């Protein structure tokens, strides 16, 4: 029913690696690392088109150059980076719980 010392030790090692990895990735997301932009939830073409339509409806005589929509998209991207950072840190916290559980089971099984 309970994991043995080998399984508990393996779980502890993998959990320790997960804590370190997810904390580092969370920090990279928090710092808006350009290399991780592909890991953000994507925008659909409809999101971009709705932005252009919204600005065109506000001022139909003005030619839309995309700068207004880019400012909105940049704010959205910043929020997505911060949300992914928080998600990574939550996952790191879950790895801490698994690490503590596996270390306790490891100590119980070797004694």
Automatic annotation (TrEMBL):
InterPro entries registered for this protein in UniProt: RNase_K (IPR026770)
Subcellular compartments: Membrane
Record-annotated membrane-spanning stretches: 12-30, 89-108
Membrane topology: Multi-pass membrane protein
MF terms (GO), sorted A to Z: RNA endonuclease activity
Assigned keywords, A-Z: Membrane, Transmembrane, Transmembrane helix
Record carries keyword Mitochondrion: no
Tagged with keyword Transmembrane helix: yes
Family named by the database record: Belongs to the RNase K family.
Protein name as annotated: Uncharacterized protein
């Amino acid at each position: 029913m309970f994991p043995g010392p080998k399984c508990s030790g393996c779980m502890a090692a993998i959990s320790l690696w997960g804590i370190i990895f997810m904390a580092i990735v969370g920090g990279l997301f928090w710092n808006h690392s350009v290399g991780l932009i592909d890991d953000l939830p994507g925008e659909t073409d409809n999101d971009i088109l709705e932005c252009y339509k919204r600005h065109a409806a506000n001022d139909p005589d003005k030619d839309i150059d995309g700068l207004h929509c880019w400012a909105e998209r940049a704010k959205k991207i910043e929020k997505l980076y911060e949300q992914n950072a928080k998600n990574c840190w939550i996952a790191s916290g879950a790895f801490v719980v698994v690490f503590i559980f596996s270390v306790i089971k490891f100590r119980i099984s070797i004694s």
